[in-house]
Design a protein that fits this description.
alpha+beta; two-stranded antiparallel ribbon; 4 strands; 150 residues; single chain; two-stranded parallel sheet
Length: 150
Amino acid sequence: MFYKGIRVGKGGKNFRMIKFRTMVPDADKIGGPSTSADDPRLTKIGKFLRKHNLDELPQLINILKGEMSFVGPRPEVPSEVATYDEETKKIILSVKPGMTDLATLANLHEEEILRGSKDPHQTYREKIKPQKLKLAKEYVKKHSFLLDIK
């Protein structure tokens, strides 16, 4: 019922981010870390949960545990964080990751951007990641209660 994926949090500390399971068991062994809307690893209920962002609700547990906040840069898998330059790591990992962020709002359904891609992870790195990192750094530099409410 739950998926507990390793993500990188504040200070570079790994934690298990909790989500509702939306893919077949062992999906990470079948394909890469990026998921397109037409990914065959998605279950029928998983497609529904993702379409309505309901798969993210268990992250409230991560918030209660102090590993995440409501708003902040979305946490990434360790292999992606390893590709960040040192300045980007320093900025983004200086705050708790969030359940939502500016990039989430800019790309509400990023799996639709990846639909039809032969290599969804490469497409993610080319089309989504640059904007995501830019907005994450912008959030950290400008974050405030008012920005979080907005």
